[in-house]
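Attaching the record inline, Q. Sequence:
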Amino acid sequence: MLTLAIETSTPLASVALGDETGLLAQATLSMRVSHSESVMPDIGRLLAEGGLSPHDLGSVVVGAGPGSFTGVRVAASIAKGICFARGLPLFAYSGLLATAAGSGVRANVCALFDARRDEVYAAAYRSLEPPVALIEPCVRAVEDVLAEVSPVAGWTFAGDGAVSFAEAIQGRGGTVLPAELGVPRAATLLRLGREYPELGRVGDVSDWEPSYVRASGAERALEA
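Structure, as predicted:
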């Protein structure tokens, strides 16, 4: 079964195609235009390069947030539209889980995305085979995250949030992965879908919404 994966939680977005045998093709989205302008053309190009069309798809897996509000919303809308129109199953996994699962570390991994305002989107996993969360996806001050995973020594931190707060993390004995190893990738979403389908299976595609964790900047401004 051919599966399309879409991951746009962070500025370095990607799409990928895979089947039961593994990854077939992948592409990093163009940074010259917004995700809303680049995702569909890149999906079409990836399919065309393999001599495929949307009619060949059997399922879709998508990054479910948190992260960039616009990016997560665009990916969710495209994934839902394809699945709803063609009656395909949808699978959704947190971009934080995709970051942790793609880090190369199998246990005690904390994924952090920079959420601005001195906060991070965070999730921590005791194990990734299978995923066992100590901290479910949330938004917190980094000091609160470090307190919950204490002792920090023995934990590996991945993501742009980990890089941003590397001094605080390393000062407590934690390991911070290089930026290039802390990116959620569509290829990792494909692997999660193959290995742990029930963890990400969406029951009702029409009602499913991604997990933003907190209100958007515009919504917070209206509440102020």
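The two ends are 48 Å apart (CA to CA). The chain has two domains: 2-95+184-223, 103-181.

More tomorrow.
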